[in-house]
Write a structure and sequence with these properties.
Blueprint: H1 2-25, E1 34-42, E2 49-58, H2 61-79
Antiparallel strand pairs: 1-2
Helix pairs in contact: 1-2
């Protein structure tokens, strides 16, 4: 059981680092997660600005929150795993 407890603790330590790095590398959006991003282009003939939607993943605060909450849940779960090093023996009363 010690290996499982150690694995959960290690995972609980690695997940926040990975989530924060991904969130920061993809744009550190302080809103909701987006899968499409709007950009603007100018029409050559009419010179009117036209919106263009591009497929792009931009993680938001919900992505960050779920990742950090998951890491915290794993850390709490690891606290409930017992680490008995000695086998439990039952003593009988001598009458």
């Amino acid at each position: 059981m010690l290996e499982m407890k150690r694995a959960l603790q290690l995972l609980a330590g690695v997940i926040p680092l990975v989530v924060v790095i991904i969130w920061a590398a993809k744009g550190a959006n302080t809103g909701w997660t987006k899968t499409k991003v709007q950009s603007w282009t100018v029409d050559e003939i009419t010179e009117i600005r036209v919106p263009i939607w591009q497929e792009k993943f931009v993680p938001g605060l919900d992505f960050l929150g779920v990742g950090l909450f998951s890491a915290a849940a794993l850390a709490v779960a690891s606290r409930f795993i017992r680490t008995n090093k000695e086998p439990i023996t039952i003593k009988q009363n001598q009458a």
